[in-house]
């Protein structure tokens, strides 16, 4: 069981460890001894092999360093990774670093792709500091979708931006391996995207509904209201579950 991380070093919390019967730490740092540290080193070796060598001048090699000890070489390599990926270079591997590692070397056994960390069309809320802290209960990366769904998301973001000058915020999609997730009943097929409406005005919410139902790959949108938009694709849910986001399902 990869429990939502696949080939990338896993992080976890009391809650996610209970759910998946794992023993992941919420972060790994200098001096830690954990099986996931050996995976982190392999991830860093792979990342290093794919990036220009000048970035690594003076950084100790991790070749043949396969132990489970988070040593100073691991810390140095991690800092280079963090700096290049726009993270705080503190040498501590937590959910933010895991997300960035997923984005650059994560392999989905389902063949899915990761929602881009940032684009001109949308914000991946999972990669923002507020998104990361609001996900602190389980620390899972719900950023994975089919490539067609990612294209659809890009279209939705672009259309919405053209009408509102504002980016949509992407919240939970699926886990890298399609594993069951304690935070959602569905979201296991790579074809579901939650979009936050927190930054939207009522008019913008309506605009998003119009943009979404107009897209040929959008099958269904669940939201608290249809704002008068008449479409069989909209499912109104007054239970409160869909007050803070649009749940968007695609065909492919
Ligand atoms: Zn949803």
UniProtKB/TrEMBL annotation:
It comes from the Bacteria. Residues 34-101 form the Peptidoglycan binding-like domain. SUPFAM superfamilies: Hedgehog/DD-peptidase, PGBD-like. InterPro entries: Peptidoglycan-bd-like, PGBD-like_sf, PGBDSf, Zn_M74/Hedgehog-like. This is Peptidoglycan binding-like domain-containing protein.
């Amino acid at each position: 069981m990869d429990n939502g991380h696949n080939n990338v070093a896993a992080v976890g919390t009391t809650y996610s460890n209970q759910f998946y019967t794992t023993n992941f730490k919420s972060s790994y740092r200098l001096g830690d001894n954990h099986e996931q540290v050996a995976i982190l080193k392999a991830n860093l070796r792979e990342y290093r092999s794919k990036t220009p060598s000048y970035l690594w001048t003076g950084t100790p090699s991790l070749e043949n360093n396969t132990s489970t000890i988070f040593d100073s070489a691991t810390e140095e390599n991690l800092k280079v990774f963090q700096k290049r990926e726009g993270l705080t270079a503190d040498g501590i591997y937590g959910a933010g670093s895991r997300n960035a590692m997923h984005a650059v070397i994560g392999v989905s056994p389902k063949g899915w792709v990761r929602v881009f960390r940032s684009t001109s069309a949308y914000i991946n809320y999972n990669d923002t500091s507020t998104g990361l802290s609001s996900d602190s209960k389980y620390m899972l990366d719900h950023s994975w979708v089919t490539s067609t769904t990612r294209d659809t998301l890009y279209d939705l973001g672009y259309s919405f931006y053209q009408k509102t000058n504002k980016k949509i915020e992407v919240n939970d999609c699926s886990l890298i391996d399609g594993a069951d997730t304690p935070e959602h009943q569905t979201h296991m097929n790579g074809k579901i995207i939650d979009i936050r409406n927190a930054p939207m005005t009522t008019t913008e919410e309506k605009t998003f509904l119009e943009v979404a139902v107009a897209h040929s790959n959008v099958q269904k949108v669940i939201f608290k209201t249809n704002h008068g938009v008449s479409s069989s694709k909209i499912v109104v849910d007054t239970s409160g579950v869909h007050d803070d986001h649009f749940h968007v399902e695609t065909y492919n």
